[in-house]
Amino acid sequence: MRAESLKFLKQIVDTPSPSGYEERAAEVYRAYTRPLADEVRTDVHGNVAAILNPKAKMKVMLAGHMDEIGFIVHHVGDDGMLYFSAIGGHDSVIPVGQRVWVHGKKKVAGVIGRKAIHLLEEDEKKKKPELKDLWIDIGAATKAEADEVVSLGDVATFQYEFQTLLGDRATARGFDNKMGSFIVAEALRLLKADGGLDPGVGVYAVATVQEEIGLRGARTAAYGIAPQTGLAVDVNHAVDYPGVSKTRYGQLDVGKGPSVMRGANANPIVFKMILDAAKEDEIPYQVDVAPGGTGTDANAMQLNMGGMATGLLGVALRYMHTPCEVLSLTDVEDCAKLMAAYCRRVRPDTDFTPRIS
Ligand SMILES: [Zn+2]
């Protein structure tokens, strides 16, 4: 991966951005895309769109959400402990014993505490802990001490940062889905650097907000832009580790190329155009099947206004919604290439109406 691109990827995944608190990641996204785009716009919801050919009538929206899961402080105890709610979907076995950053008046270190194993009752030992039974300990001895640095509604994220593993693999907190924001920005960069985009086609590379809590940013972004077609990109469950069934979930391997979704949430013409692009440009891909609406920005996009011809790309990821998500950096790069290749095939008069041909 190009050094400047890798730097941007590290920077955006390491920047805390729980849903509703994406401003810091938005700043990173704007700084990277400003020199690449003809125009960069931020809407009132917080979505950031980097645009090529903003005057074109045919519009393509690319969406990669820049929010991540996290925690929000809802109560400060008299003992100085912080009690929190989940932002997005957490497996409650994960937070126990982790270090966090609380993003208060300053960045405050804390740990997520639970009763020690020796003090658990017999029945408690058999049950998985629930988030309501956990707290954040920042070392404050009193509520007054905690109040000096933390306010109600401050958010917290795990203390994990981007790290490369063997081969082309990497791990981070928040690949879901800041690697998606990275991919839409890279697709824009490739279109600008390598050309091939029809001058009558505008591309809107959007880092969306609040996906993890109900696809909320893609909805307002799509409405504001009113594109005829678009691709969302998100992490996708790798089915290549022990205990997950291929007969139940289908096959999806880390390192075998981006996934292209087929099913009701994908316009069939868009799906075919993506596959043609992958074959012609020799980009590896894996087909992923979704029988109905997906839990991704593609769902909100497809249902925008009178409908948007939507496609969904994915990157196979292990351990989703944990602080040690694992993916292949080559898959990430190939996904950006595939996204750019799709944009190059859109014409001002492309007809996306499903039909037998
Ligand atoms: Zn997610």
Automatic annotation (TrEMBL):
Keywords: Aminopeptidase, Hydrolase, Metal-binding, Protease
Keyword field contains Hydrolase: yes
Names of required cofactors: a divalent metal cation
Single GO molecular function: aminopeptidase activity
Pfam family, one: Peptidase_M42
Classification via InterPro entries: Peptidase_M42, Peptidase_M42_aminopept, Peptidase_M42_dom2
Cofactor binding remark: Binds 2 divalent metal cations per subunit.
Superkingdom of this protein's organism: Bacteria
Binding site for Zn(2+) 1: 65, 176, 234
Record-listed Zn(2+) 2 binding positions: 176, 212, 321
Catalytic residue list: 211 (proton acceptor)
PANTHER family linked: AMINOPEPTIDASE, AMINOPEPTIDASE YSDC
Family: Belongs to the peptidase M42 family.
Protein name: M20/M25/M40 family metallo-hydrolase
Species per Swiss-Prot/TrEMBL record: Fimbriimonas ginsengisoli
